[in-house]
Specification:
D-amino Acid Aminotransferase, Chain A, domain 2; about 25% helix; 2 domains; eight-stranded mixed beta sheet; binds pyridoxal-5'-phosphate; six-stranded antiparallel beta sheet; globular; D-amino Acid Aminotransferase, Chain A, domain 1; 8 helices; alpha+beta
Length: about 300
C-alpha cells in the first residue's frame, strides 16, 4: 500500500498496523477537538539497499519528546515509537518517486482516560512540495502578531513546540495563496524574521549561511537546518545564528526555506520582488542536507 498507518494500541501501547481507510480516533479525542497534542513530519527514503527508512528519526523522536514534555503529555517511549515506525515503513509500498512523508501524531486522547492517541501515517509526498524543490517558492511577508521576545518566560505559549494546533500556520499559507504566493515568511511585530509556517528560513550573506535565533522568539528548531549546519561546518562553509529584517533577506545572495519533506526550497521572490539566486549554492545546500537524490 502507498499509504500505511500504525498505532500504539491500548494501555500496553503495542505497535500495530491499522487500516488507513477506517476511523481511528474517538470523536471526543482532545487532539481532534482542541488540537491538544503534538506531531512530527519526517521524510522516508530508500537506502542504498533499496529498503525504506525514516531520515533523522532519532532527531524527530527527540523533538516529539520535547514537545510532549512542554505540553505535559506522557513522554513518548522512543523504543516503541521506533518499532511503530519500522512496522509502518516495512508495510509500505514506495511510490515511483521513492519517498514518503511520515506523520507521527501524539494526542492527549479522550478526556480523563489518561491514554494518549499515538499514530504514524506514511503517505506519498504531495505534488506541490516535489515541484517546489525544483521551481523554488514565492513568499509573502506576514506578521506573526507578536514581538520577537513574546515567548521568553511564557512557556504556556508553547514556543518552539510542534503542537497539533497548526490552524494559524495554515491560515497564513492560505493568505499567501490569495496573494499569488506559495509560502510565507513570518515577521515579529518589531520587524525581525522568524520562520515560515512549516519551515526554517535560511539566507546567505558575506559568505555566511545564517538562520534566525529561537530563544524567546518561539520558532521551532528545524531538524533539517541543524543537519545542514552540521554538514556545512564539515564542508567549511561558515554558519551563523543571527537576527535579520526583511531588507536583509532582500539584500542577501540567496534565501531558502528548509524542512524535512520539501528539503531546501529556493526563495525566488519576496512580496513580488525577485531575490538573488545562486543555483550552485542551492545544489550544494541540498546535497549537504541529504536532498541530492535524483528527482523523479
Ligand atoms: N518551522 C516550523 C514552524 C515547522 O512546522 C517546521 C516543520 O514542519 C520547520 C520549521 C522545519 O522543521 P524540520 O526541518 O524539522 O522539518
Amino acid at each position: 500500500m502507498t499509504v500505511t498507518l500504525g498505532v500504539l494500541a491500548g494501555p500496553a501501547q503495542t505497535p500495530e498496523l491499522a487500516d488507513p481507510q477506517q476511523p481511528i480516533a474517538r470523536a471526543d479525542d482532545l487532539g481532534l477537538g482542541r488540537g491538544d497534542g503534538c506531531f512530527e513530519t519526517c521524510r522516508v527514503v530508500l537506502g542504498p539497499d533499496g529498503a525504506a527508512y525514516v531520515e533523522r528519526l532519532a532527531e524527530h523522536l527527540e523533538r516529539l519528546d520535547a514537545s510532549a514534555r512542554a505540553m505535559d503529555l506522557p513522554a513518548p517511549d522512543p523504543v516503541r515509537w521506533a518499532q511503530l515506525c519500522a512496522l509502518v515503513v516495512e508495510a509500505w509500498t514506495p511510490p515511483a518517486a521513492g519517498e514518503g512523508a511520515l506523520k507521527l501524531m501524539l494526542t492527549r486522547g479522550v478526556e480523563g482516560a489518561g491514554l494518549p492517541t499515538s499514530l504514524a501515517l506514511l503517505s506519498p509526498i504531495g505534488a506541490a512540495p516535489m515541484r517546489q524543490r525544483v521551481t523554488g517558492v514565492r513568499v509573502a511577508l506576514l506578521t506573526s502578531g507578536r514581538p520577537s521576545t513574546a515567548y521568553a518566560d511564557a512557556p504556556w505559549l508553547l514556543g518552539g513546540v510542534k503542537s497539533l494546533s497548526y490552524g494559524l500556520n495554515m491560515a497564513a499559507m492560505r493568505e499567501a495563496a490569495r496573494r499569488g504566493d506559495d509560502d510565507v515568511i513570518l515577521l515579529s511585530t518589531d520587524g525581525l524574521v522568524l520562520e515560515a509556517p512549516t519551515s526554517t528560513v535560511l539566507w546567505f550573506t558575506g559568505g555566511v549561511l545564517a538562520t534566525t535565533p529561537h530563544a524567546g522568539s518561539g520558532i521551532l528548531i528545524g531538524t533539517t537546518q541543524r543537519a545542514l549546519f552540521d554538514a556545512a561546518v564539515q564542508a567549511e562553509l561558515p554558519t551563523a545564528i543571527r537576527t535579520a529584517r526583511a531588507e536583509d533577506l532582500l539584500g542577501a545572495d540567496g534565501v531558502w526555506l528548509a524542512s524535512s519533506v520539501r528539503g531546501i526550497a529556493e526563495v525566488t521572490h519576496i512580496d513580488g520582488t525577485p531575490v538573488a539566486m545562486d543555483s550552485a549554492l542551492t545544489s550544494k545546500l541540498r546535497r549537504l542536507a541529504g536532498f541530492d537524490q535524483p528527482l523523479a
